[in-house]
Write a structure and sequence with these properties.
Blueprint (H helix, E strand, L loop, with lengths): L3 E6 L4 H12 L4 E8 L9 E3 L2 E3 L1 E3 L10 E4 L3 H13 L3 E4 L28 E3 L3 H17 L1 E10 L6 H11 L30 H14 L5 E8 L6 E9 L5 H9 L4 E3 L11 H4 L5 E9 L5 E8 L3 H17 L5
Parallel strand pairs: 1-2, 1-6, 2-5, 6-7, 7-8, 9-10, 12-13
Antiparallel strand pairs: 3-4, 9-11, 11-14, 13-14
Helix pairs in contact: 1-8, 3-5, 3-8
């Protein structure tokens, strides 16, 4: 099997660290692995795969020579500055930041949904927002069957979605701290109905990401999407209440049948036995879990779903590596 030279930018963050672990778990065909950081002498841990130990290297514009794939999660501004250098060096960048997602020349990809878009890349492929990824994985088989007209989604998002500082702050609050810096208020024992900055239409940036990214990934500008995003006192695992209206009716039975066959989806739906997706069950897992499937009795062609997934794994790191695997499978690397 051919092996590839891979670099990770943002290795010291929660997503970068998870990318490393998933490369190891999935036995990705690595030749060289370059872990890039602005502070390579401040490694937070030891990075080993089998008996090979990997040291951190300096992130600069010359760091990508000989690299085939860059798994990028260093923050939007840093990615905007360094990704072009990686492309110039001959690498394909799979970027987990928000910077390139709505660029019309950059494919926005969830491999279970639109793997064919990978072939359209010009050196950069964007990883969608974590809350968008799990929703479209669950909705794609339903959209293919009955065409979704409208989506109303409310998200319940884990603190890890805001990065390692937010995880540390939540841990500190559990131990008694009253300090709140990662979020505008204490997250312990609380819900915060604001994720990211306020937009002119009074939606937040996170909510508008879901609106715009869903249309782009599904190749359907006619889908109407409205979102409310809430931060919750959970470490890992975003949950979503999703209500859809479709062009033709999808019964509960048909929805379960479609979702049970969908790639990357596990149906957990036995309400009478208290079986449904929860963050505690999804944390550390690769799949998107769907439950509470029921027909909306207020409209003719409506359906309710409860969708849960690990936001750091499927919502970020795993999705990026699945894109890399698709690049190899489709023979799209130089």
């Amino acid at each position: 099997m051919k092996k590839y030279n891979v670099a990770i930018t943002g290795i010291r963050g929660a997503v970068g660290d998870c990318m490393f672990e998933i490369l190891k778990q999935r036995k990705f065909p690595l030749n060289e692995l370059r872990l890039l950081s602005f502070n390579p002498n401040e490694a937070l841990r030891t990075y080993k795969i089998n008996k090979r130990e990997f040291k951190l290297s300096k992130l600069d514009h010359d760091a990508f020579k000989g690299i085939d794939i860059v798994l990028s999660s260093p923050g939007a501004k840093i990615s905007a500055e360094y990704s072009p250098s990686a492309v110039k060096a001959g690498a394909v960048v799979i970027d987990n930041t928000s910077h390139f997602r709505m660029d019309p020349d950059v494919p926005l990809v969830v491999p279970e949904v639109n793997p064919e878009d990978i072939a359209k890349h010009n050196g950069i492929i964007a990883n969608p927002n974590c809350s968008t990824i799990q929703m479209v994985v669950a909705l794609k088989p339903l959209h293919d069957y009955a065409r979704i007209k409208r989506i109303v989604v409310s998200t319940y998002q884990a603190v890890s979605g805001a990065g390692s500082p937010a995880i540390d702050e939540f841990n500190a609050q559990i131990k008694g701290s009253k300090k709140a810096k990662a979020f505008p208020y204490q997250i312990l024992h609380n819900l915060i109905p604001q994720i990211d900055v306020t937009m002119p239409n009074l939606y937040t940036k996170e909510e508008m990401k879901m609106v715009k990214e869903t249309k782009k990934i599904m190749h359907d500008d006619n889908i109407r999407v409205t979102a409310t995003c809430v931060r919750c006192p959970v470490f890992f695992g975003h949950s979503e209440s999703v209500n859809i209206e479709t062009e033709k009716k999808i019964t509960r039975k048909k929805a379960i049948q479609l979702l049970s066959k969908a790639p990357g989806v596990i149906v957990m739906d036995e309400l009478e036995k208290n079986i449904y997706p929860m963050p505690l069950l999804a944390a550390g897992k690769d799949e998107t879990f769907v439950g509470r499937i029921r027909e909306d009795e207020t409209i003719d062609n409506g359906l309710n779903l409860w969708v849960v997934s690990d936001n750091i794994r499927k919502g970020a790191a795993l999705n990026a590596i699945q894109i890399a695997e698709e690049l190899i499978r489709q023979n799209l690397l130089k």
